[in-house]
Design goal:
Layout lengths: L4 E4 L6 E2 L1 H14 L7 H5 L6 H9 L3 H17 L6 E2 L3 H10 L3 E9 H10 L8 E5 L9 H11 L7 E5 L2 H10 L2 E5 L6 H6 L4 E3 L2 H8 L4
Parallel strand pairs: 1-4, 1-6, 4-5, 6-7, 7-8
Antiparallel strand pairs: 2-3
Length: 218
């Protein structure tokens, strides 16, 4: 077995969460009496924390971005958070990894409260030894901190036995900053070019291929 600990991103890696996220962004912009975002802009919201996204991709000031985040969460907490589907093959992959003795972790840019509620709602808590989201007021797009937190909680001290799995540059960059290998998935929201240029050691098209990279039987 090549890797003992596998850290997963959530949005675009474990689950397709676009509907709930996109609807909540548009809701926030409407409440602010701003034009709706394009599909291309909406896709940029998957990965980094919300305050960063509203500033970076919509061009809002710090104060207005904070207000946008409040409106977003008003809709997301009531309706959006459960509008998702787990990617085909993910439940089977998680079961295979667990049976093989791999430590599976979740490191998400979503607020931790939402991550815990989502996993509990869908009965997916048993998929992970450790699952963490970011603090509610996190401003930075740097994901290395949350990845390191889950590694520490999982007791992953051998960095060459840790693999980060994600679909955007934020996951790849966070892994590289910590000195761990990174695997980019193409079934999510990032492109092969984005993932490769951000340091991905592997690129896969399906969840099933992740098992092969980790070094377990499918």
């Amino acid at each position: 077995m090549r890797y003992q600990t596998v850290v997963f991103d959530f949005d675009g890696t474990v689950a397709d969460t676009a509907q709930g996220i996109f609807e909540s962004v548009q809701y926030a912009l409407k409440k602010l009496e701003l034009p709706p975002a394009s599909e291309q802009t909406l896709r940029c919201f998957i990965g980094p924390p919300l305050p960063y996204s509203f500033r970076q991709f919509i061009g809002l000031s710090d104060e207005t971005a904070e207000q946008a985040v409040r409106f977003y969460r008003e809709n997301y907490s009531e309706q959006g958070k459960y509008k998702l589907r787990f990617y085909d093959g993910i439940p089977e992959l998680m079961l295979s990894l667990r049976r093989a003795g791999v430590h599976t972790c979740l490191a998400s840019a979503k607020p931790d409260r939402f991550i815990q509620e989502i996993l509990k709602h869908f009965g997916a808590q048993s998929w992970f030894d450790c699952a963490l989201g970011m603090p509610m007021q996190e401003q930075s797009a740097d994901k290395s901190g949350i990845i390191l937190d889950v590694m520490n909680r999982a007791g992953a001290v051998e960095k060459d036995r840790v693999l980060m799995v994600g679909d955007t540059k934020y996951d790849m960059i966070g892994a590289k900053e910590l000195g761990v290998d990174a695997l980019g998935v193409l079934y999510g929201y990032g492109s092969a070019e984005e993932l490769t240029s951000s340091g991905a050691d592997y690129i896969v098209r399906t969840p099933q291929e992740i098992a092969t990279i980790v070094g377990i039987d499918k």
